[in-house]
Write a structure and sequence with these properties.
alpha/beta, FAD/NAD(P)-binding domain, Enolase-like, domain 1, 3 domains, seven-stranded mixed β-sheet, 12 helices, 21 strands, about 30% helix, about 25% strand, globular
Length: about 475
């Protein structure tokens, strides 16, 4: 590798890129990482405009209910008001701190950081477009034995009349002024999370989805249950409602939906999917194969059809989750450096990946949906429990919790676990270990629950629902 400027050149400073760069450098490779630091900053979507700020805003939104619920426990909370500017400023401060943490990790590992847009211009060559001190454009050309593409994804907005008036999830965190009337278009987890968040913060939220139910791909019972809870909390969820056009008038943005229904709002958030960030990367120039949506095609070890070029994370359009990108990055590091002493080379499995959706209430899920389990295993046994959590016996809230186990009848193995309720992600993370290890329903039944918690319900369900 000594004939090149670097052993590994990473394009993209998100979770996967930073992890691969840092760990490869610690294993002795000469590593560079290019990221346009004037845009999102280190950490990628998750840190800057995704998981972290979204979860912080979700916490903020929960206080609305917490203040109301506290009265049932003897508290008197008067004069409470929400300040949008304070939340935005505090979020920005925390994100800046995290950007610095990522930078320190890279520097501490000996990674060369480059601020600029990198693209492939030759077999092993990368060109970085930068800005000179006087503001004029500059270019730097470097070579690398191996190149890792970790440029992530970006929100996709379809073309329609009024497209220029909409916001994406990249923009919504700093919207100004705070929208009193907000329309959210989409039915995936991003749209549904922001519907809950802005509803909790005080917006009048209308969620428009052209499908028959939100959260396609999740367990059907979970989808219907959380939709009902969101409606109960104040979200105006309209299904089978595709947008025709959006026009600006004096009183706001006028949305016309299929079927002739109309809506007037202050702002529109489009959360209708994400596409891989591969534009202008020069992939065609070096023959890297891509898919229908521009995703980089890779093998089981994240190598592209060009042997020295690799790709991980959302740019491959597999499972768009930060921990997945981190795991994929470590597979690449082991391929480049060999496994760590005494360890086998890592691989990535995509079964039993736990997922949380920060709607209000939260969703936590791991393993197969009921429909997937029936298709794969044939006969399954479903255990289900729905109840009002202990907290809400005094809070006055009508929120309910759903917990569900899907069991392969033949083997007794629990193949799906689903929860809608407070802190569902925190609860399901631990159970994900059990499912990954192959736990059976008998193991669940023999496990002592922690009382009184909602989580104990998973080990006390005895009677099948079907």
């Amino acid at each position: 590798m000594s004939n090149f400027d670097f052993d590994l050149f990473v394009i993209g400073g998100g979770s996967g890129g930073v992890r691969a760069a840092r760990m490869a450098a610690q294993r002795g490779l000469r590593v560079a990482l290019a990221e346009v630091l004037g845009t999102d900053g280190l950490g990628g979507t998750c840190v800057n405009v995704g998981c972290i700020p979204k979860k912080l805003y979700s916490y903020a939104a929960h206080y609305h209910d917490a203040f109301n619920e506290s009265r049932g426990f003897g508290w008197s909370v008067d004069g409470v008001r929400f300040d949008w500017a304070t939340l935005k400023a505090n979020r920005a401060k925390e994100i800046t701190r995290l950007n610095g943490v990522y930078g320190n990790l890279l520097r501490g590992a000996g990674v060369t950081q480059l601020d600029g847009f990198a693209r492939l211009v030759g077999d092993h060559e990368i060109e970085i477009a930068t800005l000179n001190a006087d503001g004029s454009p500059g270019h730097q050309r470097l070579s690398a034995a191996n190149i890792l593409i970790a440029t992530g994804g970006t929100p996709h907005v379809p073309h329609f009349t009024g497209r220029e008036f909409v916001l994406t999830s990249n923009d919504i965190f700093d919207i100004d002024p705070f929208p009193q009337r907000l329309a959210i278009v989409g039915g995936g987890y991003i749209a549904s999370e922001f519907a809950s968040i802005f509803n909790g913060l005080g917006s009048r939220v209308t969620q428009l989805y052209r499908g028959e139910q939100i959260l396609r791909g999740f367990d059907d019972e979970v989808r219907h249950f959380v939709a009902a809870e969101m409606i109960k909390s104040g979200v105006d969820l309209r299904l089978n409602a595709g947008v025709v056009d959006i026009r600006r008038q004096d009183d706001g943005l006028h949305i016309e939906c299929e079927g002739g229904n109309r809506l007037v709002v202050d702002a529109v958030l489009y959360a209708t999917g994400r596409v891989p960030n591969t534009r202008d990367l020069g992939l065609d120039a070096v023959g890297v194969a891509t898919g229908a949506q521009g995703e980089v095609l890779v093998d089981a070890h994240y190598r592209t059809n060009v042997p020295h070029i690799w790709a991980v994370g959302d740019v491959t359009n597999r499972v768009q989750l930060t921990p997945v990108a981190l795991g994929e990055a470590m597979v690449v590091v082991d391929q480049l450096c060999g496994p760590a002493p005494g360890k086998a080379a890592r691989s990535m499995a995509y079964d039993f990946i736990p997922t949380a959706v920060f709607t209000h209430p939260n969703i936590g899920t791991v393993g197969l949906t009921e429909a997937q389990a029936r298709e794969r295993h044939g006969e399954v046994t479903v255990f289900r429990s729905e109840f009002k959590a202990l907290k809400h016996t005094l809070s006055g809230s009508s929120e309910r919790t759903l917990m569900k186990l899907v069991v392969d009848t033949a083997s007794d193995r629990v193949v799906g676990l689903h929860m809608v309720g407070a802190d569902a992600g925190e609860v399901v993370q631990g159970f994900a270990v059990a499912l990954k290890a192959g736990a059976t329903k008998a193991v669940f039944d023999s496990t002592i629950g922690i009382h009184p918690t909602a989580a104990e319900e998973f080990v006390t369900m005895r009677e099948p629902a079907r």
